From TrEMBL:
Primary subcellular site in the record, as a coarse category: membrane
Record-annotated Major facilitator superfamily (MFS) profile domain positions: 1-382
PANTHER family: MAJOR FACILITATOR SUPERFAMILY (MFS) PROFILE DOMAIN-CONTAINING PROTEIN-RELATED (PTHR11360:SF130), MONOCARBOXYLATE TRANSPORTER (PTHR11360)
Annotated membrane topology: Multi-pass membrane protein
Molecular function terms, GO-annotated: transmembrane transporter activity
Keyword terms, alphabetized: Membrane, Transmembrane, Transmembrane helix
Domain of life: Eukaryota
Subcellular location: Membrane
Family statement: Belongs to the major facilitator superfamily. Monocarboxylate porter (TC 2.A.1.13) family.
Signal peptide interval: none
Matches recorded under Gene3D superfamilies: MFS general substrate transporter like domains
Protein name as annotated: MFS general substrate transporter
């Protein structure tokens, strides 16, 4: 199983998440709902992608790996094609939010937990190549929507996306194969893991980091149009830039982590710098500043998302439990992903269409996450600066 094949699978889970900004922009015009309400479609999708990971992760440790992944792929395709027939908020919520989210959740954790079993060295790099799939999807899907939507309309644009997903998912289903022997016994949740204070602090820290992570991805388009005054094409271009700059940033930090620092040591400054960039977003008042924000936040947020699973893997010594322990943390951060963007949308409305409160919420959440992950690292290694973790 190559990282290239894994990239195709991640592209069809996280790709739709990182591309949701372009759907948010279109649905703001298509539906008579508030931005906060519309963001629930994307937030529920992310929530289910993460939360179902506890069950799909345990299944990936057992004998149901291919069955669970295949069911997830089927639901992803069904959700996309049903969305093409949808015209109301609830129809899109059920298809793109629930159906696509459940399918993504069934696929994601088995794919993620499969990678470390193929690599005794350079695991972080392999995970980085795989994570680049979300940036690929974040580039491909918005570009397809921007080009096809005015030409063939929303229904056929979604059907084209469905056919693209099918072409990428089919090779993965044919070629992927679990390496570890099945672990038939054991609980769905490994409660003993939370007795490890470093694991607990890491889990809570990533909750706060993910609470603020997707606010910019969901709202940069509407911020660009409403506050900066750019046109629709420019607002989509900003999302493409944010996702495009993230592609090398999902690979290069993992090379550094493998060779020099370890993933956790690199994750901490990545979270803190991401927080600083979100605070800088508050001062953006013109298009050139917003382009700079999109580039830098795209780089560091992508590095964060790539180093997160690699750091989690480094905290799990027993590879036979890597699926369930990965799934547990993903479930914890799912609640952050579920509520973060709707909270930000409500804060935009509360601020009288100003984005200040939402920007402060995202930046402060990210800063709190960085502090807690730093505490996890200190608890695990002490104050030893050069300890590779």
């Amino acid at each position: 199983m190559s990282p290239k094949t894994e990239l195709r699978g991640i592209c069809n889970t996280w790709g739709y998440v990182t591309a949701f900004g372009v759907f948010q922009t279109h649905y703001n015009q298509m539906l008579s709902e508030s931005p906060s309400a519309i963001s629930w479609i994307g937030s529920v999708q992310v929530f289910l992608l993460f939360s179902i990971a506890t069950f799909s992760g345990r299944a990936s440790d057992a004998v149901f790996f291919k069955l669970v992944w295949g069911l997830g792929a089927l639901l992803v395709l069904v959700g996309i094609f049903i969305a093409s027939l949808s015209s109301t908020f609830w129809q899109l919520f059920l298809s793109q939010g629930l159906c696509l989210g459940i399918g993504s959740g069934l696929m994601f954790c088995p794919m993620l937990s499969l990678i470390p079993t193929y690599f005794s060295k350079h695991r972080s790099l392999a995970i980085g190549f795989t994570a680049a799939g979300s940036s690929t999807g974040g580039l491909v899907f918005p570009a397809v929507v921007e080009q096809l939507l005015p030409r063939i309309g929303f229904p056929w644009t979604m059907r084209v996306l469905g056919l693209l997903s099918l072409s990428m998912l089919l090779p993965y289903f044919i070629f992927f194969k679990p390496r570890m022997p099945p672990r038939k016994g054991g609980p769905i949740v490994d409660w003993e893991a939370f007795k490890d204070m470093s694991y607990l602090l890491f889990s809570i820290g990533m909750f706060f980091a993910f609470w603020g992570l997707y606010v910019a991805f969901f709202y940069i388009g509407s911020f660009a149009r409403e506050i900066i005054g750019v046109n629709q094409a420019t607002s989509v271009s900003l999302l493409l830039i944010m996702n495009g700059t993230g592609m090398p940033a999902r690979i290069l930090p993992n090379i550094v982590a493998d060779r020099y620092t370890g993933p956790l040591n690199l994750l901490i400054p990545t979270i803190l710098v991401s927080s600083l960039i979100l605070f800088c977003w508050i001062s953006v008042v013109q298009a050139s500043n917003l382009y700079a924000f999109a580039v830098f936040y795209g780089i560091f947020s992508a590095s964060l998302q790539s180093l997160f699973p690699a750091s989690l893997t480094s905290m799990t010594v027993d590879l036979s439990k890597i699926g369930v322990r990965t799934g547990m943390v993903l479930t914890i951060v799912s609640f952050a992903a579920l509520t973060g963007s709707p909270i930000a949308g409500a804060l935009v409305q509360r601020g009288g269409e100003s984005y200040l409160y939402a920007q402060c919420f995202a930046a402060a959440s990210m800063a709190a996450g960085g502090i807690l992950v730093t505490m996890a690292r200190i608890h695990k290694t002490g104050f030893v600066v050069n300890a590779r973790k």
